[in-house]
Specification:
96 residues; 70% helix; mainly alpha
């Protein structure tokens, strides 16, 4: 009975080792290396795309904050509310 247990244990461990070595050997073939490289590049492209989207969203939020702070989006005043001639200042004011 004891010998049967150790025989079964050896066969099981041997099968697991062979499967692991086969997977590792497959990854080291040119096709396996190419596939893992392609997957890595896809992940990198996704990460760069996500980063770009985050930067664009943050830039849009900051632009909105700046526009609100400076009043660039405020409506223009009516033409009738502005004076026709503003007083002149500086050296050229004497020429008038």
């Amino acid at each position: 009975m004891r010998r049967l247990f150790w025989l079964a244990m050896g066969i099981t461990i041997g099968a697991l080792v062979v499967r692991k070595l086969s997977r590792t050997a497959e990854k080291l073939t040119p096709a396996g290396i190419g596939a893992s490289l392609a997957e890595g590049l896809r992940e990198l492209a996704d990460a760069i795309g996500d980063f770009g989207a985050d930067v664009r969203a943050a830039a849009a939020m900051r632009e909105d904050e700046l526009r609100a702070g400076t009043g660039l989006d405020a409506p223009l005043p009516d033409r009738g509310a502005l004076p026709d001639a503003l007083p002149r200042r500086g050296a050229h004011a004497a020429d008038s």
